[in-house]
Amino acid sequence: MFIIVDERELVTSGYARHFGQEGISSAGFCSGQFIDWVDSAVETDMLAVEAFLIGECPEREELPKLIRKRSQAPVIAMNEAPSLEQTLGLFTAGVDDVVRKPIHVKEILARVYAIRRRAETRRDHAVVGPMQVFFDGRDPLVRGEPFNLPRRERRILEYFVMNRGRRLTKSQIFNAVYGLFDDVVEENVVESHVSKLRKKLRARLGYDPIDSQRFLGYMMVG
User: Fold this and answer.
1) Who's near 199: CB < 8 A, 6+ residues apart?
2) HEC letters along the chain
3) Which residues contact 209 (CB under 8 A, 6 or more apart)?
4) Model pTM?
5) How far apart are CA 86 and CA 79, in angstroms?
6) Residue 214: per-residue pLDDT
7) Measured between alpha carbons, how far is 30 from 56 in angstroms, rounded to an integer?
8) On the CB side of 6, how many CA atoms lie within 13 Å of its CA?
């Protein structure tokens, strides 16, 4: 889940569309709405956010400080024009990166994953048993062979692996894959996607690496 903050609805909706084409859920805010949301969002919603993108808004240098009180997810600022003074101010405010628009969402994703790798000393993939799971949109490998998955199931698998050993609720998975504010898709669709994913994993691996506990959620165990 990516959060985009910009005063222009055309910008937030445009990035949301492009992220959607990459299988990434997102939500856009103007700065006032975002400040209200950050103050009131529940912990599970904050944990579902993978990165924050800050565009043009009056409180640009205040937003990273607010974000850091609630989340350690990467914060990237997007500048319309080159400005050393503005860039230095944003880094001082706590952003992780500053980019110049226009920028393709694939480059944004690459930068976010690079920031996370540096912060967590994690490579662009993880190995779980005979499975190699990538965090850059590539299909996983099982014993070196491609394991093709539909976009949503691949995102769920990536989320499980990123949170390996940690139990995830249906709401957390839904928010990470579909977005916090998607009121079109029912949350119960997560159960269907997870069920299909586990069936494919059992068939390919010979065992189910996902533990399920009623009322508690799911966990990648190995």
Assistant:
1) none
2) CEEEECCCHHHHHHHHHHHHHCCCCEEEECHHHHHHHHHHCCHHHHHCCCEEEECCCCCCCCHHHHHHCCCCCCEEEEECCCCHHHHHHHHHHCCCEEEECCCCHHHHHHHHHHHHHHHHCCCCEEEECCEEEECCCCCCEECCEECCCCHHHHHHHHHHHHCCCCCECHHHHHHHHHCCCCCCCCCCHHHHHHHHHHHHHHHHHCCCCEEEECCCEEEECC
3) 128, 129, 131, 201, 220, 221, 222
4) 0.62
5) 9
6) 82
7) 9
8) 23
Given this model, what pLDDT does residue 198 score? Answer: 95
User: What gap in Å lies between CA 84 and CA 145, rounded to an integer?
Assistant: 47
pLDDT (tens digit, 0 to 9) for every residue of the chain, 222 residues total? 899 999 999 999 999 999 888 878 889 999 999 999 999 988 878 888 889 999 999 888 999 999 999 998 999 999 988 889 889 999 999 999 999 988 999 899 889 888 877 766 556 788 899 999 988 778 999 999 999 999 889 999 999 998 888 888 888 888 888 766 655 567 788 899 999 999 999 999 999 999 998 878 899 987
**Beta-strand relationship, 75-79 and 97-100:** parallel
**Cα–Cα dist 144/131, whole Å:** 8
Spell out the residues 6+ positions from residue 12 whose beta carbon is closer than 8 angstroms to its own.
4, 5, 6, 28, 29, 55
Close Cβ partners of 202 (under 8 Å, ≥ 6 residues apart): 208
